[in-house]
Design brief:
This protein has about 80 residues and is mainly α. It has one domain (about 1-70): Serine Threonine Protein Phosphatase 5, Tetratricopeptide repeat (Alpha Horseshoe), CATH 1.25.40. About 75% of the residues lie in helices and about 0% in strands. The protein has 5 helices and no strands. Helix 2 (about 10-25) runs antiparallel to helix 3, helix 3 runs antiparallel to helix 4 (about 45-55) and helix 4 (about 45-55) packs antiparallel against helix 5 (about 60-70).
């Protein structure tokens, strides 16, 4: 049911799946995919989380872009 809601673009479901993929399943690619989908839906928490992921991977330009996008969307 959670996956179905996420497939339909439900942002809370996408964030919940991202958390599950990261913490329980250690599935990095699905974690990133879920966050990217939430970012496309303009979710600022996903922008920050994905920015943090890229920052840790030393992809600073991508991280900075996502942090700026979150800021521009109203998340200080």
């Amino acid at each position: 049911m959670l996956e179905q809601a996420a497939q339909q673009g439900d942002v809370p479901s996408l964030l919940a799946l991202a958390s599950i993929y990261k913490r329980k399943l250690s599935n990095e690619s699905k974690y990133v995919e879920a966050l990217q989908r939430a970012v496309k839906l303009k979710n600022t928490q996903a922008m920050i989380d994905l920015g943090d992921y890229y920052f840790c991977k030393k992809l600073r330009t991508k991280a900075k872009g996502l942090y700026q996008q979150a800021k521009d969307s109203g998340n200080p």
